[in-house]
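Page 37, top half.
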Amino acid sequence: MAIQKPSHTFTKIHLKALRTNNFKILFALSFTVFINTFSFAQDIQKKQDKVIKPTVKDSVVINAKDLIKPERPSEKAQDSTSTDSIKPKKELLEHIVKYRATDYTSFNQKKQKLYLYNNAEIDYGDINIKSGSIVIDYSTNTVYAKGILDSVGVYSQAPVFTQGSNVVEPDSIVFNTKSEKALIYNSKTEQSGGTVIAQITKKENDSVYFIHRGKYTTAEDLEDPEYYILLRKAKVVPGKKIVTGLANLFIYDVPTPIGLPFGFFPQSEKQTSGVLIPSFGEQNDRGYFLQNGGYYFAINDYVDLAVLGDYYTNGSYGFRLENTYSKRYKFRGNVGFRYENLITSERGFPDYGKSTVYNLRWSHSQDSKANPSSKFSASVNLGSSNYYRTSTNQVNLANRYNNTLSSSVSYSKTFEGEPSVNYSVTATHSQNTNTEQINMTLPTFQGNVSRIFPFAPKNGSKKGIIQNINFQYSVRGENRIQTTDSLFFKKEMFDDAKAGFQHSIPISTNFKVFKHFSLSTSANFNEVWTFKTINKVYDNLTDDLTTETVNGFDAFRTYSFSTSLGTTVYGMFNFKKDGENPKIHAIRHVIRPSISYNINPAFDKYYETAEVINADGLTAGDLEILQNDRRLEYSRFEQGLFGVPGKNFSSSMGISIANNFEAKVRDKDSTATEPKKVILLNNLNFSTSYNFAGDSLQWSPVRMSGGTQLFDNKLSVNFGATLDPYALDNNNRRINKFNINNGGSLFRLTSANMTMSYSLSGGGKKDGDANQDKGRARQENLRGGGRDDDLFGVSEDFSKPNKDDDKNKDEEPSVFYNFKIPWDLRLAYAVNYANATRQNEISSHSLMFSGNIELSPKWSVGASSGYDLKRQGFTPTQLRFGRDLLSWKMDFSWTPFGPYKSWNFFIGIKSSILKDLKYEKRRQPDQRL
């Protein structure tokens, strides 16, 4: 209900059953009739027609519009009192007051007070007050709000004071509507993720509060916070800052010596720039250090930048630039650059060493809604090959065992139509951290025209050999660079760059044969352009070939033919009989055999003989003995990007068989009406080929591969083997003789491999949670090119808040701990066998595991390790311990042995507001350059 004056208020009190006085009511009615009969107000004069005097113009030309004047509305005669010079008195209230209450609203005319009781609420401008009892004193413009006592004496319905976006929950409040000042008792105010609990708060205006002996905390239990910072005197500007005098840390009401003579707590709903507090520690060969300290720049709502640095007392240092950018429905990404100058020991000592390492990472992804016809993406991870192994920053722990760094930046564009055309430009980078070999393409251009069916009908489906004839066109251009880590980003890396184009036009068709067989045939035309060729000269004196590079455009053209015939065969083995319900109902076997035939003509016209120089230095092109030397035959395209044309005619047949096994078994669920389908083998494939044009070793080795998943897809098994039908001579070289004819078996096992991965969890955790919910540490592993698991450990940057900190926030506490302890376990097994040259050895054999277990709702333990069965030693090992201390967290990571033996201890507040209130101690591994 909205009112202007207290005397005009219609409240619920008129509806109460009160005692009446008949004489007073009769007197009030008589007085009202008397006033209405004899009183009168000022009359307004009647409307009068106003005489309009015509206007005389001097000009002879008279406009028709001047002759006819529109009639002006008549004016009302106003009394002089309507424009009184005395200014009206300011209203008692500046805003409309809206109030309500459940039990009653009562106005005391004599005391000028309005009483609201039970679920009372007042709206005044941008101020809202909810409380059990509210009293408004109109004579002093004061509002009193407090809770009420229920029937059992419990204090309830405490006031909730809201002004704009600021919410205060006190025990009671006194508020002046005119000055907007207030006294708030025992209040709780949320300020940007933290809460200020104060005994007495003085509200100066809508943007300033003064607090006496307030408590600032991020704890959830405000009645008994596990920690708080006692603010003896403080000034709070909501959404901006908190300025305090003497303040120190209390843990469960026990004071600690951790404090400040004065403090400044920035409070903002938006990102703000600020200092990043470093962590400290000691390393044996580098002394004391500060790590990950710097400054955070909140540039705008779309871009930010963190500048971090490390410093060691022996002179080593490093810095990092971390940038994140995002625009909704457009793109998002991050850029990181890290540089470290590492010094070992002291100058003049024999173990003194100095090196510089760096790493650049960039990740960019485009929203699919931004532009459906074009896409830009980037995934860059390049730098020094030994960066992760020598870096002193603990965030790189899990990536120290990476053997490859790779990058890709690409842009693609599609032109819709019939046929559609698309192209892409890609720059790639691949770097082996062991050999320090780098391969780059700057750039790769790929263009394609979709399939064209020139004989397809305009309506209906394409059927038949003629209707299915189709062709397409594709072009690929590359500028490939091969260099080493020492020449990376130097001009020498471009000296041996290779460039070229490859054009391809495949023509194919397919059709059915005998209803059950699918036959396809194709012809392919290729043309290769290159800008560098070679020329070889044979020196008879040194008995060696000299290669010369010839700059200039050159090209070669090749073509080939192929055809394939395939079908699918289904076999069913039924075990179920009438009236029986066996455990295995049936096994289905699916076979997909395929035979292909390929013809590759000989293009020996692109081959020539090296020029021969005799001992006298003269050209001797007619030396038959040297001319018959196969070393002298070469193709000038040997060092090209897309290979060389085939010199020999090839006519080969390929044979492959793919198998799949499934079983129908009795479901354990008695209510199920259908048997359960179980996969026995996902795939079991065999392939080989026979070269009709070869003069020896016409059969190629048989390659076998397979895989399956067991125990409800928890165990993944993959295996493979290579079987060679030919025997070896005494020098372990393949000879044109079958192994079975040489006293051996039908096939000779030359290599084999098997990998197994087993993931399981229990105690309330769903299977696969570890893979679906990737934490911050695993994301860091992926960005550095590492594994998508924790088999090699996780990052040790504990100072950053984890996403899973509040995962148990909604769980109800229990007096007794649930006996189902949450846990997860991942096992990985790999073995490789080699016997190509009768070595008959296990080349690699290892077992690795990682697991996590919650001993209690607040305790977690994790480990990553393994054992190398080949070298009889442990693989990289990491032990992890975590303790959830409500508003705090404690983590400990330990690598007990190995080249990276170290430990790291951390305890700090989880909230990002006070994340710099922490203690971290670590022992870093001794680096060997």
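Page 37, bottom half:
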Amino acid sequence: MEKEKKNFKKYTYGFWSLFFLGLLMVFGLFFFIAKGKMGEMPTFRELENPQSLLASDVISRDHKVLGRYFRENRSYVNYDNLPPELIEALVATEDVRYYNHSGIDLRGLLRVVKGVITGDSSSGGGSTISQQLAKMLFPRQQFESKLELVLRKFKEWVIAVKLEKSYTKEEILTMYLNKYDFLNLAVGIKSASRIYFNTEPDSLKMHQAAMFVGMAKNSSLYNPLRRPELTKKRRNTVLAQMQKYGYIDQQAYDSISALPLGLDYQKEDFKRGLAPYFREYLRITMGASKPERSKYASWQQIKYEEDSVEWETNPLFGWCQKNFKPDGTKYDLYEDGLKIYTTIDSRMQRYAEEAVEDHLKLDLQPDFNKHLKSLQNPPFSGDMNNKEVDDLLNRKIRQSERYRVLRLEGKNFNQIRKVFEQPVKMEIFTWKGDKDTIMTPLDSIRHYLSYFRSSFMAMDLATGQVRAYVGGPNYKHFMYDMVKGGKRQVGSTVKPFLYTLAMQNGLSPCTKVPNVRQQFVMPDGTIWEAKNSGSEREGEMVTLKWGLANSVNNISGWVMKQYNPQSVVDVMHKMGVYSRIDPVYSMYLGTSDITLYEMVGAYGTFANKGVYTQPIFVTHIEDKHGNVIARFRPERHDAIDEQTAYLMINLLRGVIDSGTGRRVRWHSVYGQIQGPIAGKTGTTQNHSDGWFMGVTPQIAAGVWTGADLRSIHFDDISTGQGANMALPVWGRFMKKVYADKTLEYKPDHEFEKPTNFIMDLDCEEQNDTNKKPAQFEDFF
């Protein structure tokens, strides 16, 4: 008996020794894990500030999100903006005792152990919401053994406990829902709400919230786009959990579980949505680095000089490189959650994009497609020989992505050219929708070259804020931006700068000059003259107003002779044209390459009483906490005197009321626009570029239209002139703007006359404003 007692004590002592030793070892294990002795652990500072990449939002003037810049498409949402149903569904499904533990649910762990012993997988998991958050914030690596996986699980327990100490329960739930990846570029509940249901988190309905909680089990498996029925079944499981724990009753469960998913999917794609050209311009501009001088081609030197001016004078250019966060690091457009408040109005932007598309799709492209049938080597004009065409095609081949890939494979140009002549399956753009076809890459180049492009920009005159920005017809297929990125010859839209010089020097719109050919002696001694497109009133004395209204080169040539070319260049630079302009006599025909952005800003000077107002794109930027960290205002300076500006407005109104722009008044589709309008059409040599600049008392806007290559164009003036190529876009846009009663732009505003202005501008040659256009309108 005594021996049995001794053995009992011995075994008892041994049991408790082993128990406490095991307990000590467990505590030691967790202690060493917490101290980072068992592998790297997040520091307390990292737990206080967990790394969370937030997308930067591009926001319109009327508070619409135009797009986002991101590495992870995540936008932050506060707990107060999370619907109670979402929180209840998450807790009921993932961690019903969430509010009663400190990161580790012992009852849940025992349930898991029981499930392992009995083989009953329906007993559920043991991970708490805090543990799941730990896994998301500090993701698992690729482990080599089960032992490392077990060790990682212990680490997650430690992190979960630390999270519970560092944050409130509400903060942990908020972090969880802001961090979870719901697939399809929907990271976090705010992005997911917008992408799957086109709504905000606080507007989620119960069945929508339940779907998101259901996805949290395994978003790849429960993907509503790929497996809607399985996702719905999982959603109803979430609803059943809510009913089980008293968040909803049986009646609510029965009615809600019968609902379809009701997706309103909004694909997140930077090539889609409003203002894609503008968003890309903004992205490149804000992230630009300080320009470095190039030792190569002359065009690279010009680009360096222009970028250097932008770097010094444009506060938006290189903003992320110039500005620093409180911790001393530079702002990152893709992860710092900036709110970029732009000047773009989503309504006006939509009208502008519709105007460009409707004009090209319904009118201009069908006309050009008919013209293509008459060409020997379409889409190139008939005056191009085969060698010239082949050289242009080879240049386009070298500019393609396919060429770059083939060059990396070691192929020479001859080999690559043969590849471009072999048919392959591809998707191509058409105005009837993208089309799957079989075509040679070379033919696809011809196909895309045959499409006309158009760009548009509109600016509010009072503020300099750009309201609409359309860089091209379709960003997915024609990514080159022709508002700020591309330059083309401006044709007769340059003539108002020449006439401005005349008005500054005492002439008036009613000044009469001879309508005769003007000859110029070139530096090499040769004689040059610009021809008119017609002979109307040739040999007569005509007013400057009539000459500009009808874009008569004889009259512009006469004015050009009165002054030296450099004087015209100086006027243009003062009015905001920063591109290089050769001071030669032929410049009055618009031979210089200038951006649409520059032209809109310069024309705005006429309506702003001679004050140049720089077009701007952003009003202010906020950080992720809502603090304003930058404000932007336009640069303004006196460019011309107020009287000169008003005289030019009078001249340009003549273009609309009785000259080459009078379609604005009478055309049934894009005309019949009332109110005061000043404008100018422009067409370059061979009709390669069509322009229209239109100014009202409130808005300055401009249009460029043309093909990718200047050798692709209409052959006749009736279809190739600016009044037909570009003006209709402006007209379509303004008709919709004036029809929108929610906008402040109205046709009843007037151009303000200068104080004490007494000059008589009622020139006798003014034509009937209802007169339809002549057979010719604007040649150069």
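Margin note: The first strand starts at residue 56 and ends at 59.
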